[in-house]
Amino acid sequence: MADRLHLLLLAALIVFTASSAPSKSSTSSFFSLSNGSPRFPRYSVWHRTSTQPLRRDQPEYQYETRYFSQRLDHFSFADLPTFSQRYLINFDHWLGPARLGPIFLYCGNEGDIEWFATNSGFMWEIAPKFGALLVFPEHRYYGESMPFGGREEAYKNASTLSYLTTEQALADFAVFITDLKRNLSAESCPVVLFGGSYGGMLAAWMRLKYPHIAIGALASSAPILQFEDIVPPETFYDIVSNDFRRESTSCFNTIKESWDAITEEGQKENGLQRLTKTFHFCRELKSTDDLADWLSSAYSYLAMVDYPYPANFMMPMPGHPIREVCRRVDESHDGTSILDRIFAGVSVYYNYTGNVGCFKLDDDPHGLDGWDFQACTEMVMPMSSSKENSMFPTYDFNYSSYKEECWDMFRVIPRPRWITTEFGGHGIETILKMFGSNIIFSNGLLDPWSGGSILKNISETIVALVTKEGAHHLDLRPSTPEDPQWLVEQREAEIRVIQGWINSYRKEKISTFSM
Amino acid sequence: MADRLHLLLLAALIVFTASSAPSKSSTSSFFSLSNGSPRFPRYSVWHRTSTQPLRRDQPEYQYETRYFSQRLDHFSFADLPTFSQRYLINFDHWLGPARLGPIFLYCGNEGDIEWFATNSGFMWEIAPKFGALLVFPEHRYYGESMPFGGREEAYKNASTLSYLTTEQALADFAVFITDLKRNLSAESCPVVLFGGSYGGMLAAWMRLKYPHIAIGALASSAPILQFEDIVPPETFYDIVSNDFRRESTSCFNTIKESWDAITEEGQKENGLQRLTKTFHFCRELKSTDDLADWLSSAYSYLAMVDYPYPANFMMPMPGHPIREVCRRVDESHDGTSILDRIFAGVSVYYNYTGNVGCFKLDDDPHGLDGWDFQACTEMVMPMSSSKENSMFPTYDFNYSSYKEECWDMFRVIPRPRWITTEFGGHGIETILKMFGSNIIFSNGLLDPWSGGSILKNISETIVALVTKEGAHHLDLRPSTPEDPQWLVEQREAEIRVIQGWINSYRKEKISTFSM
Prior knowledge:
Two copies of one chain form a homodimer. By secondary structure, the first copy, chain A, is an alpha/beta fold.
């Protein structure tokens, strides 16, 4: 396998887009458009439009849907159209302004806000206890919050997309919160931010950039250090690989060996045809790279959603899904080929229900993808795959190719150093210790994104809540009867810390009033 | 006197532009362009171009002039041209990276950076003691740092001016510092920010927005609270008025009475002609408003530069210039008319050297002014003049007129609430206490801008250094043999605090290294 850039970048994206997996064409572009279609299925509800029903395995949450007019560029006075930012709001439990009722705000990330709202059960569950208002503003350029009147116009080209940046999104939140509080006469009410994944990064960065807007943030699975050379670029794939190795060394080894087996098979006469059959694709494979991408994508997702109980976060999956994958890979009876064993394993991810007859690789192109644009502009997260510790094909991150492919794709030049200039990153622990406060960085160590996050307490008010057996922002999900004790305890700790922020704030407020 | 909006807005501008005084036309626009010429002389070196020699009463400072390529919009990926940001740099005393030599950076504000550099003697004087690198980046859209190739193009219209915002300027500094440090292999060297007036606001806001970029800021005369209703809108003019009253109640009363006397005289036959003669204007006055503006402007400046020793900050002036104004106003022998006494007083400001034969009101229009644009977009500082405490004509700030006049002038709509959304302001003391650190707010209470600044210690690391007899960022000026003891002590305190920041930082660095 030659250039695996697309594969490795994929990992940087999947957590966020959940299956907008970049693909690779013969010209080695890692994005889908260079050959007119993406290589990976887009299963994710993250890409659902509002007209599609949400999955019904979550509790039913009630909210009002409202809209707020936002500037397209907060930081210039260029004559640009405004756009309508959607937000969901629930007043059921709010104590109101007189009692300094808190406002819990989810920092919408790259997807439909309804999906995030209904997947953040933790907020819904603790709202009654805190007497909190719940509000979920959507991230610009996602869901219904489209500039220029609609998705097609907003995603037309680099020029219309150019205001899809993190700083603009944070300013959206700041303006939105300020206005909401004023309209509710709730200027004195404390705001607590929540966010998972990229949303967690937004929540943490809000605390750094707008400390006057919110008193604290629960940043779950927020890889704010996954930039430049702050963490080794191998981190992500090493963690995915370790998640498999901890379940079974032979499973790890089988996967590691499978890439060569796939290439070898593909080079034989009718090899692609046989691979198509082995892996149950609906249409014939065009290259073994497509297959490798499809498999790698599944492994990375599996690591993220390696939850201790059955869940339907991205796909319906058993509890400890990697354990199940490895059981199938390992337990296939003797004589089963390595490729059959790989297929048996990956079916846990792609077809756990057993309802899928054949797999499609390009079933929903959708055109330009928002996160792809963000990855090609600000969110440059270098990823490599090491020869030693990774079960994935070896790859060294190459910024020149990355840049070139972004140019081909969007006609933009990435700014790989901008995020750390704007938000910090190098020496972040010193900075957070000296200048930050009231952030919880929660992480599960099975989550490959945990490697780019904050895993130890920085100060009394910047705390890390790390669970050895946790995965991608598990803490934000609704509680279930199957929750292990460590998860129950993690959420209890979060509640205690948040309560502490609110108590301190109220105490400070009251002492200021009485002065 | 009818609409005094122009006059009152003037005060919001003069500190920064030093004489880009907005004017009033018959259509009541407060800016100069509505009638093709400004009403006030533009004496200030703040508007000098680099081809004009700087005043030679300052010590000679040596620096290299360099240029740095900046994005026009840091917060979007719109396809815009870059521009060249000028900066001045001096390495003479720098300890270098190995010894963690500090970098002292002046946050360039709305004018030619050479003028700020040569008027910030304090930085030059303390650099040897600290082994500091000195660097003075220029603010975009001022001096030589012009987007679109030059001043004429940059100031062509609202569209070309639209990137003249505070957030873009702060991002310029952040990108510039990051790049400079990398080029000097000085990533570990602590940066300390300095700034006076709007530059002081930039320095303080840099600490809030980019705590990872600089370890502390000396924000001198930085009215970060002069927005919305955070301080009473009468504050500025009340302080100016008090500066006069403390010298002489009769002087205060004479000035307060003079406005009616001027109006009355102007309404008489040949009144404007007689006023022209009394006040030595080169050309005949067109309205008494012009004269009132000319006088008000002088009084406000006088309050800002009410220094205890002779200085040539904006104009050559004696020590305690208000005392001298009032001496002349009060001491005119009996029988001298009120208008003659007013003229005698104001001549301290406009003609202390006695070299000016007659005064011009419109000698250097220059077209659109950068600070006017900033005042019409983000920097909306409401100012009123009260009937009771002010010696100025009564005026109530009227946002609707303000907005209308900004539209007429620039075709922009101000965002009066944006600054506090972006940087905080309401309840700023709580915010600074909880979330900020390492800022010195220095102020002199004679300075009318002190009313919108931070005048008390907020925490151990956010300190206010207030001098009763100080005026507008006097502490940043070079020391002189006439410096009173309180000024010497203020500067010593600043040095101690800055030394403390650097010591803590080095200690932290070393303990991190040795971990």
